[in-house]
Amino acid sequence: MKQYSNISGESRIIGYDEGQDYIIIYFENGSEYTYSYDSAGEQNVEEMKKIADGGAGLNSFINQNCRYNYEQSGFQY
How crowded is residue 44: how many other Cβ atoms within 10 Å of its Cβ? Predict the structure, then answer.
């Protein structure tokens, strides 16, 4: 897992993993969501990767563009 920089200090996202056609987002409450090309669209996934690397705005982007378009969800417990 790569640590999310959370530049604003207000995000509940703590980290992410990315593959060729997906990104997994990890939240401080232990939940994780996988967004793939198939579920959220290639353009959205690639934008999430760029935003995640930049460390700011990821949660806002997800909420505005693909909130419920995750492929799977779960908990890290």
Answer: 19
CA nearest 36: which of 27, 53, 24? 24
> Is-contact 52 20, C-beta < 8 A?
no
**Cα–Cα distance for residue pair 74/53, rounded to 1 Å:** 23
- 13-19 and 72-75 as β-strands: parallel, antiparallel, unpaired? unpaired
Write down the H helix ranges in the chain.
37-40, 42-54, 58-65
DSSP-based three-state secondary structure for 76: coil
pTM higher than 0.85, yes or no?
yes
Top-confidence residue, 73 or 65: 65
Residue 18 burial (10 A CB sphere; 0-12, 13-18, 19+): middle
pLDDT classification of 72: cutoffs 50, 70, 90: confident
